[in-house]
Amino acid sequence: MAPMFSFENPNRLLLWLVIPLLVVGYILAMRFRNRRGMRFTNTSMLDVVMPKQSQWRRHLAVALSILSLITLTAAFAKPQAEVMVPRERATVVLVIDSSRSMTATDVKPNRLDAAKTAAKEFVDKLPAKYNVSVVSMAGAVSILVPPTLDHQNVNRAIDTIQPQDSTAIGEGIDTALRAIDQAPKDPKNPKQTAPGAIVMLSDGENTAGRAPLQAAAEAKQRKVPIYTIAYGTENGYVDLDGKRYTVPPDTELMKQIAETTGGRTFSADSLGELKKVYENIGSAVGYVKANREITSRFAGYGLALAVLAALGAISLGARWP
C-alpha cells in the first residue's frame, strides 16, 4: 500500500531516534526511584511528608509529551498529502509545422520562425486558466508539451522546434487530439473529451501519413474545431542538396480543414483575430492529483498534545484540596 504521507525534508525524521532514548531514560528513572523508596522503613511518615502521586497520571503525562515530540518532529519534516485539486480542462493545442518547406524565406525571416513567433505571441495573450499543449509536426509528429498551465514552459518548447523532413498533417491532427485527451479528467465523466481547440500553423503541403481531411472529420466528431494559419506565398522556395524546389502553400487544404471542423482559417497578417479561438472554447473543471503541505495540521496536533502533557504535569505538582 502506498504511504499516506510524504515529507519534503525526510532527513529531519532522524530526530525520532532520540525518542526511544527518552523512553529508556524514563524507565530507568522509575526503577531508580522505586529502589530508593525501599530504603525508608517508616512509609507512613513518608506519606505525610510527600503524598503519594497517581502512577497512571504520571505515565499519561509522559506518554502525551512523547506523542507531542513525535508529532512536532513530523511537522518539522514538512509533511505532504496527495489530494485531488480542481483544474480547468479547456485546452488549446498548437500544432507547428516543422517541415523543410517551412524554411522558405518568402515570409521573413522564414516561415518557421514567423510561425514560432506568432505561436508565442498567442500563448502570451491566452488567459492563464487555459491549458496549452505543443505538437511538432513533420514526417514524425510528437507532443513536445502535454496540456499545462505553465505558459512560459510552452514558449521554451516552441523555441526548440527544428526543421525536419516531410509533413504529416493528418497525423498532426491525430496527435493533437491525443494531447487534448491528456487534459485533467472529469471524475463524473472520465471518457468525456475536454473542451478544446487546435491551432495549426503550417504551409499546408501534406506529404506523408493519413489523409488530413479524414483526421479533420474525426476532430469534428469530437467537437474540436481546428483553426489554421497558412504561411507562405506562391513564390516560396527552398534549396536542398544543391537543388531548388518551389514550395507554394496549400491554402485550400488549410481552409478545408478549418471548415470541416467548424473552425476558421487565418492569414499571417490577421493573427489578432485569434482571440476567437479561446473565446469559443468554453470551460469545464477536472481534477488532478497534487501534493499539498500539511505542516500546520501536524503542528496543531503536536501543540494540542503538548498542552495536555503540560496539564498532566501541573496536576502532578499541584496540591489539590
Automatic annotation (TrEMBL):
Coiled coil: none annotated. Residues 91-281 form the VWFA domain. The keyword Manganese does not apply. PROSITE patterns: VWFA. The chain crosses the membrane at residues 13-29, 298-318. Keywords: Cell membrane, Membrane, Transmembrane, Transmembrane helix. PANTHER family: LEUCINE ZIPPER PROTEIN 4, SPORE GERMINATION PROTEIN. This is VWA domain-containing protein. The lineage of its organism: Bacteria, Bacillati, Actinomycetota, Actinomycetes, Propionibacteriales.
